[in-house]
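<purpose> Linking amino acid order to shape
<body> The protein record starts here
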Amino acid sequence: MPYHHKRGGLDINSIGSRRHRPSGGARFNGSRLSPKSQSRAARASERAALSRAAKGRGTYIHPSGFGKRDPSQTRKMLLTIVFVAVIAVALATVVGVLVYQQTARNALKPVLDTQDISQQLTPVESEDDLFWNVLVHTDASSAEEGRGAVVDLALVCVDPDNVTLSFLWIPVNTRVYIDGIGYSKIEDAFADAHEEGIVAAVKKLANVDIAHYIEINDAGLSRLENQLAPLSVDVATASKEALVGAICRRLFGSSTEQMSARVDSFVACVATDASSDQVTQTFRALHGINVDTSCYEETMPSTLEDIGGAQYSICSTDSWNTMVSRVSSGMSPVATPSEVDTNKVTRESCTVAVWNGVGVSGVANDCTNELKKLGWNVISTGNANQFVYDETFVVFKDTDDEAAARLLAADLGQGRVVRSYARYSYEGNLLVVIGKDYKPY
């Protein structure tokens, strides 16, 4: 069987048939009929005309009859495609990064219920005022896995005026009374009501107003350590106190230019009710602090006791109240040996008057006896002109006696230190006016 050849392969469709050629000697050239007898110049002119017409339509007809795209148009189209692809990839990358960052932030720290916790917090009136904070460290590896359990708990005092920072660590098994639960471990207040519960429990334990709440989990602490690296301690083996000291050195010992970055690092790793502006204000107040001499860390005085098969830390109330009161008075939580000697002389040489300002029989005598046990030289006891005092005051006349007044308030475990300015007439260096908030030992 004969085969009929066709350009580009075998023409199997024409087997057994005769190929038809148009009459008049014409042949197919592309989509037009071109007489075979047409001159070469005429055919070239026709192809040029076809080319010009095709370019107007965005298509270039090759003289041979095979369609091709205009090279300049091809380059433009390729550039457009590449540009669109780059933009698409860039947008996808940006969106992906933003989504990842937001997911990382959400996974790093919990979202606080600011409305509920605000009922437990007392705003700071002045930038120079001393204020207290509750710091909670949990074992959560991410916020997505829940809030976790309390690992460390501290009552933290920021004193901008004296540029001091005090951490009073509270054992998480401290026995306290929790509303709605009864006597239990203080960590149970967090398990029951999170930030609102733990702030309420610490307020009751320390009898102070809380300005801010700060929570950091294991994920946030690890991120903060990495961002502040290198730290001056081995993170894996350092004690809690040593690690906190090292972090404070990096946070507050940086240059002014680095402060913004330090604030951003801190805010990114902790959950707090405080705004970025409030955090920045605190960082500025503590900038340049000497951590070795002005950053204090003490643990709440307590004893261990088994109750109902569980082990509790029982707060040593007298020592704890003195510790909190000392810090509230601008002093270190615990007196140094040299301070002990100085304080002994102060108590013996300073004369004190005690007034009953609430009308409760015998309260002034009770206070006097306690002060004498501590070594204070109480020279008179009596009643105030009116029993209208809601708050206990420790009054001093001369600025030279202000330090003694703060010491007395610390020993007493309560009392706001104020200057007399001739409003109080009394004999001696100091005056104690007992108010309704007075709590005998």
